[in-house]
Amino acid sequence: MQNSLRQGKLRLQKWYTATAERDKKKMVRELMQIVLARKPKMCSFLEWRDLKIVYKRYASLYFCCAIEEQDNELITLEVIHRFVELLDKYFGSVCELDIIFNFEKAYFILDEFLMGGEIQDTSKKSVLKAIEQADLLQEEDESPRSVLEEMGLA
Amino acid sequence: MPAVSKGDGMRGLAVFISDIRNCKSKEAEVKRINKELANIRSKFKGDKALDGYSKKKYVCKLLFIFLLGHDIDFGHMEAVNLLSSNKYTEKQIGYLFISVLVNSNSDLIRLINNGIKNDLASRNPTFMNLALHCIAFASEIPRILVAGDTMDSVKQSAALCLLRLNRTSPDLVPMGEWTARVVHLLNDQHLGVVTAATSLITTLAQKSPDDFKTSISLAVARLSRIVTSASIDLQDYTYYFVAAPWLSVKLLRLLQCYPPPEDAALRSRLTECLETILNKAQEPPKSKKVQHSNAKNAVLFEAISLIIHHDSEPTLLVRACNQLGQFLQHRETNLRYLALESMCTLASSEFSHEAVKTHIETVINALKTERDVSVRQRAVDLLYAMCDRSNAKQIVAEMLSYLETADYSIREEIVLKVAILAEKYAVDYTWYVDTILNLIRIAGDYVSEEVWYRVIQIVINRDDVQGYAAKTVFEALQAPACHENLVKVGGYILGEFGNLIAGDSRSSPLVQFNLLHSKFHLCSVPTRALLLSAYIKFINLFPEVKATIQEVLRSDSQLRNADVELQQRAVEYLRLSCIASTDILATVLEEMPPFPERESSILAKLKRKKGPGNLPDIDDARRNVNGNTEHSEKTETTNKVTLVRTASAYLLNLNSTPTAGASLLVDVFSDSSTLASVEVSDENFPRFVCKNNGVIFENQLLQIGLKSEYRQNLGRMYVFYGNKTSTQFLSFSSSVTCNDTLKNHILSTSSVDPIIEGGAQVQQILNIECVSDFTDAPVLNVQFRYGGTLQNIAVKLPVMLNKFFQPTEMTSQDFFQRWKQLGAPQQEVQKIFKAKHPMDTEVTKAKILGFGVALLDRVDPNPENFVGAGVIHSKNTQVGCLLRLEPNTQAQMYRLTLRTSRDSVSQRLCDLLSEQF
């Protein structure tokens, strides 16, 4: 499970274990409360239910992962950082708005990087190459459309 | 790099998002969303067939609305349609929607599966990847994974996809034939593939370690290449000057699935790796960036985990401990937190316990100065773990002083920990009494019943501390405001032992009574009831205050008290004091008999607190057979009503030995015959002969897991009840039945919450004592309501004689000497049987060790044979036991011989063990 959120608004969430919708909402709410209440110098790990929470703040965004008991906290922190780097490289100094307007892209990047909750590739180049290729495919099959058509008037 | 605007083209979506962001209020936002939902709905329903592009756009909008926290109940069909589109972006959005929004129970799954199948079959690698991402179809994947012509990125996805499948439904993809080739992915040239494959192999190895044993040497070799060769260029896999940190962590993690390698060369190569990692921690950082140190330390911590897991190299353990000691003072909060956490596990290793203890001052300092409560919590845990007789006083004192300022959320846990340490390491029980009274003074509200019951039990059982206890509580009660728990302890102890300090005029009987009575009116009903019992005991101890106390009992506020319990006590005690002769009084109100020595119930409570279960409610505890709670409650009850009404019953209780109490429990068990009709499940029972943990029972609703630990003649079993459904289980209850001949007593069972939430797990603890040797096993009966119907389940609990083994190492000479001593025909039991499983030496060794005996190397002249020795501990006796297992690989047969001093033990052990091979 990985979420990023900001002052109480969820921007992106991905669950790697099957969870009921109702529980998801409850967990997200609970986590936001806990994480947002923490002060800057505090440590980035905390125990929550039977999981460990690893979180990090980048400007107005909190990135937050829930990992299992035996997982490595520090490397998870760097998973977050690598994801941020990828976003940054792709969008060119990423900001919250990029993630809001291009949430599907952010998802694609996350999916290229993590799969089923495990790291797929740690190389920045490989991940970005995969996404670039996807973008190329996209351009090929996207024929330009007029604004009118876009708005459903044509 | 691609700019944001590139190729997007979904302006409608962007406009919609802007609209939402421009909404001034929540209401406006909801209104805008509803409008959009209506629009999309009409588009989807409309007569005009939508083109792929519009579908994609609308599905995207739905996704965005979902992210805002609204429920989406349509559009799934359109998303599935997108899957079969030929355009990449449309397919991609379709997959995204499905992976975010579709639950596994949806009936759309079949349609989705179809789409995925098509994509998997296609020759287009991108489509294949997309499909793998969405995760489903099975038997094809291992082929894709190991096929020579598969692109690296597809291999990576396939590995992780397989992992995912294996976690959800392990039977779906039999790995059998692929195993060797999957393991060889560790040698792949592409580090991304290795990383993904390592995750897969780790998961598979956790499930079936034997099949993936070959991965050990490959993992060590790979790790060694990454860690020790300085010049290697890993290009993009070097992360802030750290070579492949993710892969290193994963490899170290994989190695934690196994014991230290047996092959000496491999072992020394691994040790070299670990040493190098430890050395690198001392080198100056190559970058000031936090990412550099995080990645480096992530590898270091994982290496330390492996060292702790192996627990075999004293030098490495001590080095790890020193390294963590440095981190304890690091300026990074994260590192301090992790160091405290890892040290906790190091403290329990015999090699490093002493080394951990040297850091006590630093840890205490952390407790005092850390600003983050989660770090302080870790420090408390570590102090608890490193405590032993030598430093108990210091640690308990520090915890007590921390308690005064501790966060409310962790106070109760600290109270329990202090109480346990104080009892466990008390050399002198005056210190113990002082500590507990201090606990009550500082954090009375957090002192649970178990804690103050326990102090009373100990004072009653140890006559050397009774006078001191009476004096101390008397002094403590002088404080103008004291906690009600102190009044309870004070009332009880003075009622029993007030006479020991009555000689001093400053604590004469009347002074004691007045002191107690001054607290009376401020107390709750249960405490007042306890005080009334103390008063009647005073009448017996000190005839000179009889009149004063009778006066108090006679007052309207007692005799006509609105509370029935109080009123009854007042009336009965008053009457008793009037009519009974001094002799009868002295008999009825005699000092409480010692409590049977049992393990602390506080410890059980602490463990329960750590688990997901809730606090026990009193009713449950009463119904349960928890020896301590019941006994302490009984003391209260007996010295209130029972003894007055039926003094003879009390006398009987006085004469009865503690074991009589236990057999009473057995009787209570056998009464619950209503459950007899349920068939007892024992299919998993044999699997627990050589191991202590695992799943003992599982059906569609419930999973019962066990974790047990045994020491000498005592055992503790943690039973985990997992609700597999999404609905609550109601009126959940469980009990243990033993048949009459079973002398193996279940000492206590902890209470379980009557409600188990859907998907939740609760834990129950059984304390077990082996009284003498036995054959039968207790049965666990579980009852609960699920969807209106009552479910009854009975499971045979794997409590077997061999669990109480302590391994014994001995030389060849000793062994044969004893073997000869046990030469009488009835002492030996032998069985020859056919092998049911492949005859693997390592597996056999593991099984014999798991059985509980020590495996004696080079004792038998024939190296093929296995020889073991151990002692069975029961409360009454110890039975030495020697065993010998002779495999005959040609005939696929075994001969098992057991010699013990008791024929019944030999027979039972032979029966148990012979079923395992």
Please describe what this structure looks like.
By secondary structure, chain A is an alpha+beta fold. Chain A has one domain (about 20-150): 2-Layer Sandwich (Beta-Lactamase). Helices cover about 50% and strands about 20% of the residues of chain A. Chain A has a 5-stranded antiparallel sheet with strand order 2-1-5-4-3, sandwiched between helices. In chain A, strands 6-7 form a two-stranded antiparallel ribbon. In chain A, strand 6 (about 115) and strand 7 (about 120) form a beta hairpin. Chain A is globular. In chain B, strand 15 (about 865-875) and strand 16 (about 880-890) form a beta hairpin. Among the domains of chain B are: about 385-590, Leucine-rich Repeat Variant (Alpha Horseshoe); about 685-800, Immunoglobulin-like, CATH 2.60.40; about 800-915, TATA-Binding Protein (2-Layer Sandwich). Chain B is an alpha+beta fold. Chain B is globular and about 100 Å long. Mean pLDDT of chain B is about 80; it is low at about 1-10 and about 610-675. In chain B, strands 12, 13, 14, 15, 16 and 17 form a 6-stranded antiparallel sheet that branches. Chain B has a 5-stranded antiparallel sheet with strand order 4-5-6-9-8, with no helix packed on it. A 4-stranded mixed sheet of chain B has the order 3-11-10-7. The interface between A and B is large, with 73 and 81 residues.
